[in-house]
Amino acid sequence: MRGKILVLVLLLVGYVIMSSDANPSLHDYGDALSKTILFFEGQRSGKLPSTQRLTWRKDSALRDGADEGMDLTGGYYDAGDNVKFNFPMAFSTTLLAWGVLEYGKSMGPDLPHALEAVRWSTDYFLKSTATPGVVYAQVGDPNGDHNCWQRPEDMDTPRTVYKVSEKAPGSEVAAEIAAALAAASLAFKAFGDRPYSKLLLQRASKVFEFADKYRGSYNDSMGSGACPFYCDFSGYEDELLWAAAWLHRATKSPVYWNYVVHNIHNFKPQIEGGILEFGWDSKHAGINILVSKYVLSQQNLEATTPFLSYADNFVCNVLPESPTNTVSFSPGGLLFKSGVCNMQHTTALSFLLLVYARYLKSSKHVIRCNNVIIAQNQLVRFTRKQVDYILGDNPLNVSYMVGYGTKFPQRIHHRASSLPSIVQQPQHINCKGGTPYFLTDQPNQNLLIGAVVGGPDIHDAFADDRIDAAKSEPTTYVNAPLVGLLAYFKARSSH
C-alpha cells in the first residue's frame, strides 16, 4: 500500500511539473507589451500626431530650441517631470531599438508602434546633432521644472537649452546618442526602412567621432543642468565603448572592433569594478553582452578577449543559484539594488540575461560560476520570474504596470497623469496651481497606461504614494528594456 501511495505521489508531482512547464504563467504578455509601448506616447514632447492614442495628452514645448535658433521639438520627457534629458533618453532609445532588433518578429501588430516609439526619439536626436561640433544635450531647466507641479501643455518654466561642444565636451551624452542612432539604424534596416537606417548610421558615426575626439564629462560642461539629476558617476569611457560596439555591429568595420578591443584593456579597472552595472549611467555589463554575439560567432576570439568571461561574471553575480551571487532579492523574489527607482535595475539586468541566453543558444559556450554550471534556460526562467513579479506575481498581488491587471498603482508621481487634462480643464494651470493635485490622496486624473513605477521596497512593501517618487515615479528607462522582454514571453506563451 505504501508503495502505491508513493507511486501516486510521484505521478502527481510529475503532473504538476509538466503542467507548470506547459502553462508557465497566466499573464497576458501581449496585452502587457501593447501597454508598455503605449506608455511612450504619454511621454511625448512636441507636436503630437493624429495617430496619438493617449488622447488626454496634447501638444507641448513647441518652441524648444527657439532661443538657440534651433528646432529642438520632439523627444521624450524622461519621467514624471517635463525636462528632456538627452542622456537617459538616448539610453532608453538604445534599449528600445535593441529590443526591436532581437524580438521585433515576435511583436506582431505592436511592431509598428515600437518602431514609432524609437523614431520619436531618433528624429529628435537628428535635430540635436545637426550642427557640426555641437550636441544639444538637454532642453528645460530642471531646477525650475522640479519646483513646479504643472502639465507639460502649460509649462511656464524656462526651456533652457544645454549643449556640449569642442570646448565644453560631453562625451557620455554624445556617445550614448551615437549608440542610440546606431542601434536604431539596425532596427529600421531589419524592418524595411533602409534609407532612414542609412541616415541614422551616418549620423551615429559622426557623433561618435565628436564624442571620442573631444573628451570630457558633461558634468563639468553643463553643471547644475546635469547634476544632481542625471550626474554621470561612472565616467564617459563606458559610453565610448558602448557606442563603438554598436557601430561595429551596424557596420562590421574592423575599425570599431579594434577600438573596443584596445580600449577594453585600457578601461579594465572600470569594467571589472562595474561588471554588474547597467543603466543610463553605466554600460559595462551591456557592452559585454552585446559584444558576446560577435565573439561567439568567431573562432579564437573567446580565448583572446575578455568579453565572455566578463559576461559570465555578470551572470554569476546576478543569478540566485550562483555561489558568487552579489545581488539582493526581496522575500517575494524581486531583484533589488540600492538607490532610487529599483525597477530600472530589474528590467535592464533581466533584458541582458535574456539576450545573453539568446546568443548562447546556438553556441557550445558554458557558463561556470565556480563549480556550478548555469544553463541557458536558467537565464530565461529567471527573467520570466522578474517579469511576472512586475505584472502581479508578488506578495501584494499588485501589478506595477498602470492599466495592467485589476490592481495597480493609482497615485503615480507624474505631473501630466495627476493633473486634469486640458480636455477636461482647458484653463491654464500655473506653476503652483497643480500643488493640490500633487498633495491629494485621490487617484490620478488620467491613466498613464503601461507606466511601470519604481516599485516596492526590499521587503515587498508598496504604499502607492505620489509623494514617494523613488517608488511611484515611472521612467522611460524602466519601460524600454521591458518591451523586448515582453515580446519574447508573448511569443513563448502563444506556442
UniProtKB/TrEMBL annotation:
UniProt family annotation: Belongs to the glycosyl hydrolase 9 (cellulase E) family.
PANTHER family on file: ENDO-1,4-BETA-GLUCANASE
Listed name of the protein: Endoglucanase
One Pfam family this sequence matches: Glyco_hydro_9
Coiled coil: none
Entry EC no(s): 3.2.1.4
Reaction equations catalysed: Endohydrolysis of (1->4)-beta-D-glucosidic linkages in cellulose, lichenin and cereal beta-D-glucans
Signal sequence segment: 1-22
Record has Signal as a keyword: yes
Active site: H413
Gene Ontology molecular function: any one: cellulase activity
Source organism per UniProt: Sesamum angolense
Claim: Glycosyltransferase is one of the keywords in the record: no
Residues covered by the Glycoside hydrolase family domain: 29-486
Keywords: Carbohydrate metabolism, Cellulose degradation, Glycosidase, Hydrolase, Polysaccharide degradation, Signal
SUPFAM superfamilies: Six-hairpin glycosidases (SSF48208)
Transmembrane residue ranges: none
GO biological process: cellulose catabolic process
